[in-house]
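tool_log.txt
---
The assistant was asked to compare two proteins side by side. It first ran the structure predictor on the initial sequence, then on the second. Raw inputs and outputs are pasted verbatim so the downstream comparison step can read them without reformatting.
(1)
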Amino acid sequence: MADWDIKKLRILRTLQERGTVTATAEALHMTPSAVSQQLSGLARSLGVTLLEAHGRRVRLTGAAQLVLRHAEAVFAQLERADADLLGYLQGEAGTVRVGAFSTAIPALVVPAVQELRRSHPGLAVTVREAEAEAAYELLAEGSVDLALSLAAHAPTPRDPKFSRVALLADPLDVALPAGHPLAAEPGLRLADLAGEPWIFGSSGPWSQITRAACESAGFVPEQAHSAADWNAIWAMVAAGMGVALVPRMARAGGLRAPGHGGGVALRVLHADQPRRHVIAAARRGSEAAPGLARVLAALRQAAAAQASTGRTGDDG
């Protein structure tokens, strides 16, 4: 295969534009002998004659014209590559892979992606749903570039492998059957529900968060039913089967309307509001990459909007 030397092809193109070796040398800040040597080398590598004598000057051969026709396509593609690379370096292009737990996707990731599509359409974001703990495994193995997780289930801030960014303190409200005696109790506290049957996951982050919140309120919750899907939990609460803590972010994921809708009273625990802390993490050092930094900024913006709209909550 012929050796298509880009630098030498540019010299040939300049010769076509300028007409003489001397003018080519001046344009490229080279000596005329250096121009001649480079073009002789290109001719040898391609195995064709590129120049022929024309009076006291030289002119391009038919082979040279053919070479330049193809070279122009190469130059155009290199210009596009330069533009794409510049966009990547400026965070305007490329792909950022995000791993996130289920309720974070509609509440934070989707709004962030929508904003990035508007402000930086060349930057692609791919999303992979993963449990909070599994998101870190994906991050460590390089399957995602950014992991959205919960602080309680993440490596410590001192872990040298990751950089962590706090996004949101997500309040936990309590869901009770609409006809429950405490559904309209003023100043409801979590401790008031110590004797109630509870609904939460049998294992994993939500089980730990529910148990920790209740234990902080002074009791160990009696688990009557186990479920991980929020709509399943909502349905069981509506059926009078127990009470449950519901993260406010879950409302952005299609959970039924709060308040007394659907047979459920959703109450804000003003006195002792438990929260779960949502964080974003990247492999240490990668967070400075422009594309990833733009995604982080969009997630912060989505988290601020989520905190603003959900600050007061609903108290039915």
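(2)
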Amino acid sequence: MKTEVDLNCDMGEGFGQWVLGEAPDEDLMALISSANIAAGFHAGDPNSMDRVVKLAQQYGVGLGAHPGYRDLQGFGRRYIRTSAEELVNDIVYQIGAIREFGRRYGIALQHVKPHGALYMEAAVNEELSQLMVDTLQKTSSDAIIFCMGISKTYEVAKRLGHPVVREFYADRDYDDTGSIVFKRQVARPDPEQIAAKCLRACQEGLVRTVDGNDIPIEFESICFHSDTPGALEIGRAIRSTLTDNGITIAAAATVLERAS
């Protein structure tokens, strides 16, 4: 049974006057311990990055870069066929943007979490994961990588000794392989059911799949998405359910440090 877990959320996912999701970033920031901030390719712009990084500093939340495919129109959820070298260069570029805004407000970069289709591609593409981890070890050696426990990203990071955190997806379904089921449109879920799912994962290490089977799941962080309908209610339900059952919410760096 877990007594401590990170709670992360994707943040700042708008562009200019356009805002994705119904929950204000500052309301979500009050609930979480790590923030994945859109860095301009799938969403986000300099003004939104500045605003949300500042919020992370104000709320004492772990700062994360959330790099994606260069795909504003598709919100980074469409696969783009290109080389691992080009993708890693895009990742470095986006990390640099978030890190500089963090320096502006005196907050260090805690983690890197690829977004959407890029996250899923890295999960199965060992060449991409290898180059990404190699590069992060040179440019951001202390930055934790967020990924799925069954991913190539996790295998490579562990093999190379890079700090890595496995995620549990609160507002996504799982298949029997332990991978999340990708959906472009997500219906409004029941916050209490999601919170119960998270509590069971923490207490029993199990999750129910779309095929009705229970599979083991290992993780250090729980993720929910700001663009999921009812995200604020989901975040509140997860946090209150976990803390009411004696599970502390702490930033990913703290969870890793105490687990070592």
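---
observation on (2): The chain has nine helices and twelve strands. Residues 174 and 180 are 4 Å apart (CA to CA).
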